[in-house]
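Example S7 (structure tokens).
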């Protein structure tokens, strides 16, 4: 479970298919944000609340690999932020951090370069 300033996000994994849903408060309807194949076991790989948005790492059914996603709690506002490693390769996001003024930073795992 993850919380932002305006929503609570719920993530689940059933039979190797991840789903995410959000709710905007008491009495509000649960919004199914769709099937996402989550990075890791039963959770989104890395996630941080940034104001009203949730930034997280997940893999889409389209095969982009594990990449950086963002959601405002709506279906339309849940999207791949960027494909850090083009093609089916993972973006290898190691961490997401929020700095002063809401600036978002993330780090990628780097493979050693072999000459």
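Recovered sequence:
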């Amino acid at each position: 479970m993850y919380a932002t300033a305006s929503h609570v996000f719920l993530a689940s994994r059933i039979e190797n298919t991840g789903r995410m849903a959000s709710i905007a408060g008491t009495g509000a309807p649960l919004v199914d944000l769709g099937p996402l194949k989550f990075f890791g076991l039963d959770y989104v790989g890395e996630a941080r609340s940034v104001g009203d948005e949730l930034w997280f790492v997940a893999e889409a059914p389209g095969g982009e690999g594990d990449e950086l996603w963002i959601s405002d709690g709506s279906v339309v506002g849940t999207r791949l932020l960027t494909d850090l490693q083009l093609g089916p390769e993972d973006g290898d996001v190691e961490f997401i951090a929020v700095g002063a003024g809401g600036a978002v930073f993330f780090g990628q795992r780097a493979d050693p370069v072999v000459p």
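Notes on this example. The mean pLDDT is 76.
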